[in-house]
Design a protein that fits this description.
The complex is a heterodimer of chains A (267) and B (379). Helices cover 33% and strands 21% of the residues of chain A. Chain A is an alpha+beta fold. Chain A has a single domain, classed as Thiolase/Chalcone synthase (Peroxisomal Thiolase, Chain A, domain 1). In chain A, β7 and β8 form a beta hairpin. Chain A starts with a strand and ends in a 5-residue tail after the last strand. Chain B is an alpha/beta fold and 379 residues long. Chain B has a 6-stranded mixed sheet with strand order 8-15-14-9-10-12. In chain B, strands 4-3-5-7 form a 4-stranded mixed sheet, sandwiched between helices. In chain B, β14 and β15 form a beta hairpin. The chains are: A alpha+beta (267), B alpha/beta (379). Chains A and B meet through α4, α5, α6, β3 and α7 of A and α4, α6, β4, α7 and α8 of B. β3 of chain A pairs antiparallel with β4 of chain B, so a sheet runs across the interface.
Chain lengths: 267, 379
């Protein structure tokens, strides 16, 4: 099977202790030590006020990662792939709690925020884009599933695709069965052709090899704890600006082998 | 398939007044009988929930499981992808578990299994394991366009050379989240839903599972094969729970699907409308269809028969389009009697028997997600 190729033209990151890609790049390049702290979720400035008020944590983390990855590009022209391992955990808890109570009248906002594609819907409004949007879930394999879908779309449709993988924390009692501890969002703008914005070229193939880990124990704990963070080894390779070959976590039967070739002069 | 065809021939409706679980809403539903008696195949018990029971039932209809086994032998289990659309997956299982929380600690009951029942990936994972496949797999969860968009994901992966075939489909089952949620938006009807009717007043929620095996078309196609000839996707960029009032996103999806199929609007012999029977959906979609096709293309919504099966609707209506193409049966919409005069379409109130070559199916969802599919006869 041939490798699926794309250029990374933009990166966005919002994670525990990593407020954006610039901060993340310095940590992942080994220039600054990693210190974990609760992810801070900005109200999405790109949304109209009414939608901004209604946006939950998944929408906020996804839009922050997407906006940073797409900065400087015409967002209205970008196809999108959203991948989340389970959507908005806190909103799900509130709905299930109400439905188990005497008053089942969940609010319209709570209901429309419960759909797995809520972030995609808000993004379309915020970015003014009418382009294709794929919204996926593959539980712990969600980052890999999103990357594969986006790479296939870049290769087949010849368009730039913004991949946004995002997860939210689950409150108790769901936390006991789904232990995602915090919000994590990563955005990758993937393009079929090299441009002055290109940071690195990546080639992705299916692989039987085992997924690689992060050398830093705290970053490895993050990678293991949150499905969207399974992309950290790829971000690390890009941050180090050196050619690299790595294996990302995906499914029980198959992983994703990724070759990273820096384009030089990375911003 | 044959009882479905027979029901379409009779213009029967499966809707009944809601008596599901403890739901106290004045509404109608399309419920699949007998799910409480289904047992998961041995070894798959951890997936046990209403949603996966219905999916297992669909996988076992019409010789489908045998077709999957033959495809796995032909292509290799790594070369077949699985893409299943669902909106709420097995959330009903979590709704039930929340009624059984530990009074002291608030903990969920120990027999509750989140990953294999509630999580959106559960149905796709179940289908993959049921079929013994090991290729790429994902749930597509874009509300009511989910199981139309699975065809797009599968077709892209096939074109990219990652897979040679795909198990695609959709499944959604009755749950309180969708019933009380749509009720909160004022979108459920107190009567059986009446798509494109002048007095339509909202949806009737239904449940369904529909699955299909898709492979590359080659020279040895039999005349009965159905081709997926065009896919069009778009986003509304308008509102989270209301469609663009002129149906702009819907129109773009239909235009893209026609362009991908290399067809003109006049080539389409039947349109299976999204037709949810909410005032806003049918008005927006009707305007978009009229603008693109004029008033001469036969069309209907089959949701009067099935209810709105949400994330399963795209898959279910793809199957109905396949039946229409194979049998030359253009199904009239059940329940609707007096059409909305503001929507000048050739909306079928009665069945029409007529051979057609191409059919288009529309699926639109919350968050302004749109997908249109064109299916064609192979001969």
């Amino acid at each position: 099977m041939n490798s699926l190729l794309a250029y990374i033209d933009g990166i966005g990151l919002l994670a525990p202790g990593l407020d954006n890609w610039e901060a993340g790049r310095a940590v992942l390049a080994g220039q600054v030590s990693y210190v974990s702290r609760k992810t801070s979720l900005p109200a999405p400035a790109m949304l109209p006020p009414a939608e901004r008020r209604r946006s939950g944590p998944l929408v906020r983390v996804a839009l922050a990662a997407g906006a940073e990855a797409g900065a400087g590009h015409d967002l209205a022209t970008l196809a999108t792939v959203f991948s989340s391992s389970g959507g908005d955990g806190a909103n799900c808890h509130e709905i299930c709690e109400m439905l188990a109570s005497a008053d089942r009248q969940i609010s319209p906002t709570r209901f429309h925020n419960s759909v797995h594609n809520a972030a995609a819907g808000y993004w379309s409004i915020a970015a003014g884009t009418m382009e294709t949007s794929s919204v996926l879930c593959a539980y712990d394999a969600s980052f890999g599933a999103g990357l594969l879908e986006a790479m296939a779309q870049v290769a087949v449709d010849g368009v730039s695709v913004l991949l946004i993988a995002a997860d939210t924390a689950y409150p108790q009692p769901l936390r006991a069965v789904r232990g995602i501890p915090d919000e994590f969002g990563v955005g990758l703008l993937l393009s079929p052709r090299r441009s002055p914005a290109s940071i690195a070229q990546i080639g992705v193939t299916l692989s039987d090899a085992a997924a690689g880990c992060m050398a830093d124990l705290a970053l490895e704990a993050l990678r293991a704890a949150i499905p969207a963070a399974r992309g950290l080894p790829l971000l690390e390779a890009v941050a180090r600006s050196k050619p690299a070959a790595l294996v990302l976590d995906y499914l029980e039967h198959v992983r994703l082998a990724v070759e990273v070739s820096p384009c030089g002069q990375a911003a | 398939m044959s009882p479905t065809l027979q029901s379409l021939r009779e213009q029967a409706s499966g809707l009944a007044r809601c008596n599901f679980d403890t739901v106290d809403l004045d509404t109608w539903i399309g419920e699949v009988d007998g799910l409480d008696g289904i047992r998961m195949r041995p070894g798959m018990e951890e997936y046990d929930c209403r949603n996966n029971r219905l999916l297992q039932l669909a996988l076992e209809q019409d010789g489908f499981a045998d077709a999957l086994r033959a495809a796995a032998a032909r292509h290799g289990r790594r070369r077949i992808g699985v893409f299943i659309g669902t909106s709420t997956s097995g959330i009903f299982q979590t709704e039930l578990a929340y009624r059984r929380r530990d009074p002291a600690s608030g903990a969920l009951p120990p027999d509750f299994m989140y990953a294999t029942t509630h999580n959106s990936f559960s149905a796709a994972s179940f289908a993959q394991r049921y079929a013994g496949l090991e290729g790429p797999v994902a749930a597509v969860s874009s509300a009511c366009s989910s199981s139309a968009k699975v065809f797009a994901s599968a077709a892209r992966m096939m074109a990219a050379g990652l897979i040679d075939a795909a198990l695609v489909g959709g499944v959604d089952t009755l749950c309180l989240t969708t019933m009380y949620g749509f009720n909160s938006l004022g979108l459920t009807s107190a009567r059986p839903c009446r798509p494109y009717s002048a007095d339509r007043s909202g949806i009737s929620i239904g449940e369904a599972a529909a699955v299909a095996l898709i492979e590359r078309a080659d020279a040895s196609l039999d005349a009965d094969a159905i081709l997926l000839s065009g896919i069009g996707e778009s986003s509304d960029a308008y509102h989270m729970s209301s469609p663009h009032p002129e149906g702009l996103g819907a129109r773009i999806a239909m235009e893209k699907a026609l362009a991908a199929a290399g067809l003109a609007p006049a080539d389409i012999g039947y349109i299976n409308l999204h037709g949810t029977a909410t005032p806003s959906n049918d008005a927006a979609e009707g305007k978009a269809v009229a603008a693109l096709f004029g008033s001469g293309t036969p069309c209907s919504s089959t949701k009067g028969a099935t209810g709105h099966t949400l994330g399963a609707a795209g898959g279910l209506e793809a199957v109905i389009c396949a039946l229409a193409l194979r049998h030359g049966l253009l199904p009239g919409g059940a329940n609707t009697t007096a059409l909305d005069p503001a929507l000048p379409l050739d909306y079928l109130l009665e069945n029409r028997e007529r051979p057609i070559r191409h059919a288009l199916s529309n699926s639109f969802g919350f968050g302004g997600t749109n997908c249109s599919l064109v299916f064609s006869r192979a001969d």
